[in-house]
Design a protein that fits this description.
Elements: H1 2-48, E1 64-67, E2 72-74, E3 82-88, H2 95-109, E4 118-124, H3 132-141, E5 149-153, H4 156-165, E6 170-172, E7 178-180, E8 183-187, E9 193-198, H5 205-216
Parallel strand pairs: 3-4, 4-5
Antiparallel strand pairs: 1-2, 1-5, 3-8, 6-7, 8-9
């Protein structure tokens, strides 16, 4: 009788031990699965993280800007879009209206399928006059009110720095007038210069081709 009890004791003990080991194994596998999933999530997060900005990118500029809606932004906030940029001033009566017309013409001609990938940015070289309110009025006057249009102003120092990056020269020649370069620049989604169109009323076919090429990469 005692022998049977010992057999039962060891049998129960073995079962408990087996169940304990099985539970431990399941817990271990579950833990490893969670760790593996965590590592996978980390890798995905790393991959999705913003890759480093190249030395040639305008997004290295730390300057602060204000748009026509009185919203403060940095250039890097525009990252991920192809940028078509020009520097103007709203009181200009000579070259700037033609530059604005060229920008509108380019915007109208780019394919509809890529329009959401492109921003048209007009940067003021006369920030003392071109307040956000003035930029907003200018946008309305020129029928450039859609989300694709961005008007920016900053300090004189930031404006000069940005103009140098675009190879745009400008100089105040009277209380109301500037002489300035007439350049429309195209930047890829990483803020690297892709193309420049120089002059007024020039053929924009190559500019549009370059915008389309860069924007299609984002689809």
């Amino acid at each position: 009788m005692k022998s049977n009890e010992n057999i039962k004791f060891y049998s129960d003990r073995s079962i408990r031990l087996f169940l304990g080991l099985a539970l431990l194994l399941v817990s271990f596998q579950s833990c490893n699965k969670v760790k593996a999933e965590d590592k996978l999530d980390e890798k995905k997060a790393e991959k999705a993280a913003v890759k480093s900005i190249s030395d040639l990118s305008i997004y290295n500029l730390p300057s602060q800007w204000t748009d026509q809606n009185n919203t403060d932004i940095e250039m890097v906030d525009l990252r991920g879009k192809v940028l078509v940029m020009v520097m103007i001033y709203t009181s200009c009566k000579a070259a700037c209206p033609r530059l604005v017309a060229d920008m509108r013409n380019i915007e109208q001609r780019i394919p509809a399928k890529i329009k959401d990938n492109v921003k048209f940015v007009l940067v003021s070289i006369d920030p003392s006059v071109d307040t956000p309110k003035r930029l907003k009025s200018f946008a309305i006057e020129n029928k450039m009110e859609g989300d694709q249009w961005v008007f920016l102003r900053s300090s004189e120092e930031n404006t000069r720095e940005f103009a140098a990056v675009l190879a745009v020269n400008y100089k105040k020649i009277s209380p109301l007038d500037f002489s300035h370069s007439n350049i429309i620049s195209v930047f890829n989604a990483e803020g690297e210069l892709a193309y420049q169109q120089e002059g007024l009323g020039v053929n924009s076919d190559e500019t549009i081709n370059k915008i389309t090429l860069e924007a299609e990469k984002l689809n």
